[in-house]
Design a protein that fits this description.
- The chain has one domain.
- The protein is α+β, with helices and mostly antiparallel strands.
- The chain has two helices and six strands; from the N terminus they run E-E-E-E-H-E-E-H.
Length: 96
Amino acid sequence: MSPRRTSASWRTAVLYDNRVRMSCSSEGNPHPDGIRFVGTEGWIHVSHRATTLCNLTDISARVGRKVTWDAGEERFVADDRANRLLGRAMRSPWRI
């Protein structure tokens, strides 16, 4: 893996199977401490999926390319390198 780098700014775009598009950016964000999802009827509480989005964006940046995510399987499609970044070994004595 290449040396760690810290992003000064970022932009990510997501296209879902149902053709919904979502984009997030570090610039011009009215909610600088997080992402706020707003639908046609107001604020949407997304919890796990919001965290997933952040992790997927990070992994895409680390591998340096676009990735394809299978939300049902919670794995990247045909991408061993990206899938290896989904978890890491825990320090002793911690285990799951």
